[in-house]
Amino acid sequence: MAGVDTPATPPQTGPEEPFDPHAPRYDAHGRDQYGRSRLHPRVTSFRTRRGTLTPAQQRSWDELWDRVGKDAADEMIDPASWFGRTAPLVVEIGAGTGTSTAAMALAEPEIDVIAVEVYHPGLAQLLHAINREQIPNIRLVRGDGVDVLENMIAPASLTGVRVFFPDPWPKVRHHKRRLLQPETFALIASRLRVGGVLHVATDHAEYAEWIAEAAAEVPILRTLDGVSPIGLDRPETKFEGKAKAADRPVAEMIWRKAER
Ligand SMILES: C[S@@+](CC[C@H](N)C(=O)[O-])C[C@H]1O[C@@H](n2cnc3c(N)ncnc32)[C@H](O)[C@@H]1O
Fold first, then answer.
1. Left if phi > 0, otherwise alpha if psi is -120 to 50, otherwise beta: which for 226?
2. CA-CA distance, 236 to 128, in Å (whole number)?
3. What is the per-residue pLDDT across 154-189, written as a single tens digit (0 to 9) for each?
4. What is the per-residue pLDDT across 42-62, written as a single tens digit (0 to 9) for each?
5. Is 167 annotated as catalytic?
6. 91 and 149 Cβ atoms separated by less than 8 Å
7. Rounded distance, CA 143 to CA 72, Å?
8. Which fold does the domain 55-257 belong to in CATH?
C-alpha cells in the first residue's frame, strides 16, 4: 500500500529489473515503471473488475463523463472550477455503484462530493443516477483512492472523507491489500482540514479492529465527540443489507482531525 510519501509497491510478479523507489510513479500515459496502467494496478487494495455497461449506462457515460468525470492523473483538482462554486468538499473512496453517494449528495446539496472508484460499471451506474436525478454536486474520479488523494487533492482541503464497506481482504496474506492502513490514515489526515471528519463503516469485525488500531497510529485523528460538519446518515446499501441478514453488526467509526 502506498502511503503519504511512500512509492508504489513492487509488483509480486513483474519484470526482472529491481524496484526503483525513486522512479516517478506514473508516466505521461498513466503507466508505472512496470508498464501497468494506473487505472488497473495489479498490487492494490482492489481486484480489477471489468464489466460491460448497459446501453443506458453507456449513454450516460458518453453524455456526462467528460464534464463530471476524470481519470486519476498527476493533476491537482481545482474544486471551485470543477463544481462551479466553493463549498465544503467530501471525498468518498470506493463508492461502488454510488447508492450512498447519490443519496447523501441529494440530502446535502450544500456539500460537494468527489466519488473515487475503480469499478467502471459502478461509476457508470452512479453517472446514470446523476443524469436521471439531475444531481449537481457529485464528481467522479476513476482510479485508486490513495493515488487520487496523494496526487489530485490539496492538503487540508477536505471537510470529509467517506469509506463505506471497504473490501476486507480477510486472508492474512492479503492484509497488505487493505485500503485502511496506518499510511492511508496519515494521508487522509493530511488532506482533511482541521475539524474535518473521516467516516468509515464495515461489517467485518476483524477488519474493524484492524482499522481502529491503524487509526490509533495517527493521533491527530480523534474520535468524533461533537457535531459533524457533514451528514453521517447513510442509506442501507447492498453490503449493509447482506450484513444485517447474516447478523453481522456494522461498525461505524468517525474521527475528527484535531489541530495537532
Ligand atoms: C465492498 S465495495 C463497497 C461499495 C460501497 N462503498 C457500498 O457501501 O456499497 C468496495 C468498493 O471499493 C472499491 N475499491 C477498493 N479499493 C479501492 C481503492 N483503492 N480505490 C478506489 N476504490 C476502491 C471496489 O472497487 C468496490 O467497489
1. beta
2. 19
3. 999 999 999 999 999 999 999 999 999 999 999 999
4. 445 655 556 788 898 899 899
5. yes
6. yes
7. 5
8. Rossmann fold (3.40.50)
Q: Which of 32, 147, 167, 247 is catalytic?
A: 167
Residue 185 forms beta bridges with which residues?
none
Backbone angles phi, psi at 42, to 5 degrees: -85, -35
Q: CA of 232: how far to CAs of 100, 105, 229, 254, in Å?
A: 11, 12, 9, 9
**pTM of the model as a whole:** 0.86
Ligand 1 close to Cβ of residue 93 (< 6 A): yes
CA distance 260 to 250: 30
CA of 230 to the centre of ligand 1 (A): 21
Q: Facing residues of 115 across strands? A: 92, 140
Q: How far apart are CA 116 and CA 138, in angstroms?
A: 11
What is the pLDDT, as a whole number, of residue 2?
35
Q: Which three cell numbers stand for residue 199?
A: 467516516
Is the CB of residue 114 less than 8 Å from the CB of residue 142? no
DSSP H/E element including 25: none
The per-residue pLDDT for range 148-159, each reduced to its tens digit, is: 999 999 999 999
Residue of 39, 42, 165, 244 to test ligand 1 pocket, by largest number of atoms within 8 Å of CB = 165
Cβ atoms of 130 and 138 closer than 8 Å = yes
